[in-house]
Specification:
The complex is a heterodimer of chains A (about 450) and B (about 100). With about 450 residues, chain A is of the alpha/beta class. Chain A contains 16 helices and ten strands. Chain B is mainly α and about 100 residues long. Classes of the chains: A alpha/beta (about 450), B mainly alpha (about 100). The interface between A and B is large, with 71 and 55 residues.
C-alpha cells in the first residue's frame, strides 16, 4: 500500500484511482472485517474526495452512521464533523470507511463490537487487539493508507502492536476530542495508526491543534513535528526494566535486542523501574468506569439511536439501555456507578484520583533524567479469539499502556520484530507532555535501525 | 468487598439498567472480583496526595454563554431521532 507521504504527492486523478483501487481491495479482503462496511456488505462510507483515511466508528463524520460499535446507536446520524475530520479535509485528506471497534472503546480485542469480529491479518485465528482493532487491521492488511483511532488505556498502541503497525497517542489536550464519542473524558485521545513513523508524524501534525469548542484542548500553538524529524538526534532513554523482565520470553528477547540497537546507535540508555502495574489497572478501572457511567447517561433513547418499545418513560430508559448496551459496557457502568455512589465514593473514587497523582509523579521522576521512556506494549503477542473470557483477565492486557493515559503523556508504539509464530511484537516510547518531537525522533531512529 | 444482590439492585436503579435473572450471579461474581482487585490501591500510601486531578494545565477555561445554533445540526438530529414532532422529542407518558 502507498504510504501517506507518497499519497500526499499524488495529483487529483491519481487520488481518484487510489480511492477506486482501495474499494476493490476492501471488497476482496472482506473476511478481515476491519471496516464495518465489510462486515455489513455495504458500500464504503465516504465524505469528500481527498486521500482516503479509515475512521474509527466513534469519531463524528457529518452524515455518517457513527455508532461506537454499539447497538444503542443504531440509526444515529452524525450532524457535524469532529475537529480532526475538518483538519484532515483542509489538508487534502478525507474520511473513508468506518473502522470496527470494541463497543464504546471498552475492550482489547474488538470482540465486543455489535457488528462482529475483526481478524488479525497476520493470523486470522487471532484478535487484532482493541479497541481500535479495525483501524490497525485495515492498515496491516493493506486496505487503508492510514487510520484514526482513539486511545483511552492503550486502544491505539495495543492493536498497532498486535497488527505490526505504528500507533500514536498524543499528549492529552494536543488533539481535540470535539466530535469523539466520550468514554473516559480525562483519558481519551484521538491519534494516528499508520504504516510507518513518518506517516504517523504527518497525520498527527494534521489533526493536532487548539479547538475553542473543546475546553480540554490545550491552548498552545501547534509546532509542526513532521518537517523536523531527526533520527540522528541522540537521546537519553529510560528503559522500564521490571516491565521488560515480566513479558513473555520472546517479547523480552526482542525488546532487549531493540534496546541494544538503540544503545549501539548512540543513545544513552538508563534503567528504571515503575511500581507494580496492578495499581495502574486498579486506578484506571475506577476512573474510566466512573467517567463512563456519567458520560453514558446520555444514551437514554430520547434524542438519538435505538429506542426500545415501552409504555412509560422509566421503562423506556431501562429497556433502551438494557437492550442497547453490551455486557462489558453494562459491567463498567455498574462499576462506575458503584465507585461514585454515596458511601463508597471516598474509598474508591477519591483514592483512585490520589493514586493518579502518585502514578504521574513516578513518570515525572523518570522523565527528569530522560528524554524518553522505552517499554513493552503488551505482555504477549496477539491472542486467539475467545481465549480471554474473564473480564479481569482482559483488563490485564493493558498493563503497560494504561499508566500513560493516567499521566496524560504522549506515546508511540512501533513494530520491533516477530515471535516464532510470525506474530508482530511492538514496543513503545513514552515522552514528556508536549514532547512529541523527541517522541517521533526516537521512534524514527529505532525504525531506521531495525530496517537495516 | 463483596457485591451482593441488594447492592446490585441499587446500582441497577441508579444506572437505569436491568441485569437479566440468568446473568445476575455471574455479574455479581465479576463485579466483586473487579472491586477486590481495585482494593489493591489500599496498599499504597496516598495520604499526602491531592484528591482532585486534572491533566489540563491551568484548568479548563470559562467562556461567555452565547447561544450558537446551527440549523443543519438541529435538522439532522430531529429527523433521525426515535420520535420527534414540531421541533420536540416525543417520549412515552411521564405521568399516568
Amino acid at each position: 500500500m502507498i504510504t501517506l507521504k507518497e499519497a500526499l504527492a499524488l495529483n487529483k486523478e491519481e487520488i481518484v484511482k487510489l480511492r477506486s483501487d482501495l474499494k476493490t481491495k476492501i471488497e476482496e479482503k472482506k473476511e478481515i472485517g476491519a471496516y464495518i462496511e465489510q462486515l455489513q456488505n455495504k458500500p464504503i462510507a465516504e465524505f469528500g474526495e481527498g486521500i482516503p483515511i479509515a475512521i474509527k466508528d466513534n469519531i463524528q463524520v457529518n452524515g455518517w452512521n457513527v455508532t461506537s460499535g454499539s447497538n444503542i446507536l443504531q440509526g444515529y446520524v452524525a450532524p457535524y464533523n469532529a475537529t480532526v475530520i475538518d483538519n484532515m479535509l483542509s489538508h487534502g485528506l478525507a474520511p473513508f470507511g468506518r473502522a470496527n471497534m470494541d463497543e464504546f472503546a471498552m475492550g482489547s480485542s474488538t470482540e465486543s463490537s455489535f457488528y462482529g469480529k475483526t481478524l488479525n491479518p497476520h493470523n486470522t485465528s487471532c484478535v487484532p487487539g482493541g479497541s481500535s482493532g479495525g483501524s490497525a487491521a485495515a492498515v496491516a492488511a493493506g486496505i487503508a493508507v492510514a487510520a484514526l483511532g482513539s486511545d483511552t488505556g492503550g486502544s491505539i498502541r495495543q492493536p498497532a502492536a498486535f497488527c505490526g503497525c505504528v500507533g500514536m497517542k498524543p499528549t492529552y489536550g494536543k488533539v481535540s476530542r470535539y466530535g469523539l464519542a466520550s468514554y473516559s473524558s480525562s483519558l481519551d485521545q484521538i491519534g494516528p495508526i499508520t504504516q510507518n513513523v513518518e506517516d504517523a508524524a504527518i497525520l498527527y501534525d494534521i489533526i493536532a491543534g487548539h479547538e475553542v469548542k473543546d475546553s480540554t484542548s490545550a491552548n498552545i500553538a501547534h509546532e509542526k513535528v513532521s518537517d523536523k524529524l531527526d533520527s540522528q538526534r541522540k537521546l537519553t532513554i529510560a528503559v522500564i526494566e521490571n516491565y521488560v523482565e515480566e513479558t513473555d520470553e520472546e517479547i523480552k528477547n526482542t525488546t532487549k535486542a531493540a534496546i541494544k540497537a538503540l544503545e549501539d546507535a548512540g543513545h544513552k540508555i538508563v534503567y528504571k523501574n515503575l511500581t507494580n502495574s496492578k495499581y495502574d489497572i486498579a486506578t484506571y478501572y475506577v476512573i474510566a468506569a466512573a467517567e463512563a457511567s456519567a458520560n453514558f447517561s446520555r444514551y437514554d433513547g430520547v434524542r438519538y439511536g435505538n429506542r426500545a418499545e415501552s409504555t412509560n418513560l422509566k421503562e423506556m430508559y431501562n429497556k433502551t439501555r438494557s437492550e442497547g448496551f453490551g455486557e462489558e459496557v453494562k459491567r463498567r457502568i455498574l462499576l462506575g456507578t458503584f465507585v461514585l455512589s454515596s458511601g463508597y465514593y471516598d474509598a474508591y473514587y477519591i483514592k483512585a484520583q490520589k493514586a493518579r497523582h502518585f502514578i504521574k509523579s513516578q513518570f515525572e521522576e523518570i522523565l527528569n533524567e530522560a528524554d524518553l521512556i522505552f517499554a513493552p506494549v503488551t505482555p504477549t503477542t496477539a491472542f486467539e479469539f475467545g481465549s480471554k473470557s474473564d473480564p479481569l483477565e482482559m483488563y490485564l492486557q493493558d498493563i503497560y499502556t494504561i499508566s500513560v493515559n493516567l499521566a496524560g503523556l504522549p506515546a508511540i508504539s512501533l513494530p520491533i520484530g516477530f515471535d516464532s509464530k510470525n506474530m508482530p511484537i511492538g514496543a513503545q516510547f513514552i515522552g514528556h507532555a508536549y514532547g512529541e518531537q523527541a517522541l517521533f525522533d526516537g521512534a524514527l531512529s529505532l525504525e531506521k535501525i531495525l530496517k537495516k | 468487598m463483596k457485591i451482593d444482590n441488594d447492592l446490585l439492585k441499587k446500582l441497577e436503579t441508579l444506572s437505569s439498567l436491568k441485569i437479566d435473572e440468568n446473568k445476575r450471579e455471574g455479574t455479581i461474581a465479576q463485579l466483586s472480583e473487579i472491586v477486590e482487585f481495585v482494593e489493591n490501591l489500599n496498599e499504597l500510601d496516598l495520604d499526602n496526595e491531592e484528591a482532585t486531578f486534572t491533566t489540563v494545565a491551568g484548568g479548563t477555561p470559562m467562556r461567555e454563554d452565547i447561544p450558537n445554533v446551527n440549523p443543519d445540526v438541529v435538522k439532522t438530529i430531529l429527523s433521525n431521532a426515535p420520535q420527534s414532532e414540531n421541533g420536540f422529542f416525543v417520549v412515552p407518558k411521564i405521568i399516568e
